[in-house]
Amino acid sequence: MEKKKNISMAVIKRLPKYHRYLKELMKNDVDRISSKELSEKIGFTASQIRQDLNCFGDFGQQGYGYNVNELYNQISNILGLTKPYKTIIIGAGNIGQAIANYTDFEKIGFNLEAMFDINPKLIGIRIRDIEIMDIDYLGDYLRENQVDIGVICTPNNNGQKVCDILVRNGVKGIWNFAPVDLVVPEDVKVENVHLSDSLLTLTCLLNDD
Ligand code: NAI
C-alpha cells in the first residue's frame, strides 16, 4: 500500500488513536476486525473509519474486515514510526523532566539524547542517564550532533530564542510546550501542546447543560 500525500489534518489527528487501538488488538491476538467492531472500540463511526482508511489505499475487504497487523503497519508508516528520532529537551524543569522520565516514548522510537537548561543548579544533574547541559552549549551540540526533534519546555519568554537556535542548526521538528506561537520557516514543523486546552474542554463539558 502506498503512502498517500496530502492527508487532511483532521485525519492525521485521528491516526494516533487508530494506532493505539490497533496495537492493543494485536496484543490480544486479534487478526482481523470489521469497521463496525473497530467503531465500537474506538468511538468513531464505521463510515468515518472507512473514509479515513480509504485515504491511504484500498484496505478493508468486504466481508473480511481489516487485517489488524497490516493496518497497524501501514498507519505506523504514515505516522513516520518506521525510524528512530533523535530528540533533545530544552528546559529541564517540571515538564522537561516529566517527559525525560517517561520511558515509553523510547519504545516508539523517540530517543532522548540530551537535555539543556539555563539554571546552574540543574546543570550537571542526571535525569535517568542523561546529564543536563548548559544552554550555552546548545549551538555547539547541534553542530556536532544531528537532532530530529527539539522539545521546548522553557518559559514562554524564552521559547522563540531557543527555537531560533534549533532552527538555525537544522532541527526540523519542534514539540512545543511553551505557551508561545513560534515563528519558524515553512520546512520546520511545530506541534504545540496545550494541556490547559484539554482541561478547558473538560470544564466546558462539565458545564454544558
Ligand atoms: P519550570 O520552571 O519547572 O521549568 C522551566 C525550565 O526552563 C527551568 O528549569 C528553567 O531554568 C529553564 N529555562 C528558562 N530559560 C531557559 C533557556 N533560555 N534555556 C534553557 N532553559 C531555560 O516550568 P514548567 O512547569 O516545566 O513549565 C515549562 C513551560 O511549559 C512554561 O512555559 C509553562 O508555562 C509551560 N506549560 C505548558 C503546559 C502545556 O500544556 N503546554 C502546561 C504547563 C506549563
TrEMBL record:
Compartments it resides in: Cytoplasm
Alphabetic keyword roster: Cytoplasm, DNA-binding, NAD, Repressor, Transcription, Transcription regulation
Highest rank taxon of the organism: Bacteria
Gene Ontology biological-process annotations: negative regulation of DNA-templated transcription; response to redox state
InterPro entries recorded: CoA-bd, NAD(P)-bd_dom_sf, Rex_actinobacterial-type, Rex_DNA-bd_C_dom, Tscrpt_rep_Rex, WH-like_DNA-bd_sf, WH_DNA-bd_sf
Keyword Transcription listed: yes
NCBIfam families noted in UniProt: PRK05472.1-3, PRK05472.1-4, PRK05472.2-2, PRK05472.2-3, PRK05472.2-4, PRK05472.2-5
Protein family according to the UniProt entry: Belongs to the transcriptional regulatory Rex family.
Biological role: Modulates transcription in response to changes in cellular NADH/NAD(+) redox state.
Protein name: Redox-sensing transcriptional repressor Rex
Classification lineage: Bacteria, Bacillati, Bacillota, Clostridia, Eubacteriales
Gene: rex
